[in-house]
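Attaching the record inline, Q. Sequence:
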Amino acid sequence: MSYTIDSNLKAGIEMLAEGKSNKKALQLINKSAQSGKTKGKSYFEIGRILREGVNGIEPNPEEARRYYDKAMEIFLHSPCDSMDHREMGDYYHYGLGFAEVDLNRALEYYDMAANEGDELAKQNAEDIRNMLRKGNTSKAPVLSPETTVKETPVTPEEVRPAAQVKPVAVAPKVVTEEKPAEKEDPLLTSIIDSEQLTIKALRLLDSISSNRQDKLDGVELAKAAAEKGSARAAFLVGFLYEGDNSLVEKDLNTSKVYYDMAVELGSASAMFRLGILYTDSDSPFFDLNKGHELILKSAHAGYSWALAHLGDCFRQKVSDPRNLDLAYRYYAMAGERGLGLGYHNMAEIDTSRQQLELAKEHEKLAMQNGYDPSLGYQDPLFYSLHI
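Structure, as predicted:
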């Protein structure tokens, strides 16, 4: 099997898998996407991170689609190896991007990867064919013996394909009279179970092939994952019950229950969202003091949106010029954590002070960190990968 993988991407994925510094791992992956030699793989991995979430980053399946599409664009205009072909198969198999699920194209790419020695792609292709034989898929692909996609040989580097890293199998324990087999850690088992449930929930909620009942099942799986201790799942359910979706009716009391779970599990983003709900006068549990306390805790934990919110609060109190200085400092901290909006707000203050050159520099930093001033849009990739 031939493949190449950028060293920063490989190191970042392995650090995430080993539970090491997420901040360092995400910085390496971000660097790989910007200037690495295998950008398709890098963007595909970013899509996975945004779709499934990691500790410190809440899932954002809709935003993930953009990065999966970017990965496909790069794959289609670059020499591809077995790992690229497998990921292209995954794109159409699971409906990862904005394109519809297309099992026919998925099979073509999986077969190409399998012919290059990729065992996981071979298994995925076999799974699709098994579904066809059993007749339990509504989107049966047309099996074509040829493919029009060009294959290009690639020189392998002396590394493992990081995106293909599988869970380490548990070696059989040798039980002797002197040393009995170790018991499984129930807490660790619970954490693993909750994360598996979370991923299943996200796939149901995000898949283009899911019907309404599938998505409702995804909500229930997320609730079960939250009960088992997944902060990501608890945040997701809390966010859903804030409304603005067609799956569940708005219920801020239920939202609070799940945000409280996430806060207990250390979610800084849940602290911020729950704090905002407390400060809403229409909320059934309106409490300004409690809301401000949670927002401050989130900011102290380094959550960029909480820092920017504090900047907004001080900026509104323009009667005291010292408040504008405090706002500027909070915006700077948000910007340093990858939130381009923070730099944009600094640029606005610079302009009001007639510091036009400094404003240009901060606006440049805002755009470099994913903020589009013409649309007022902040790309979540940037602040997510700098937490």
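The chain has 18 helices and two strands. The longest helix spans residues 186-206.

More tomorrow.
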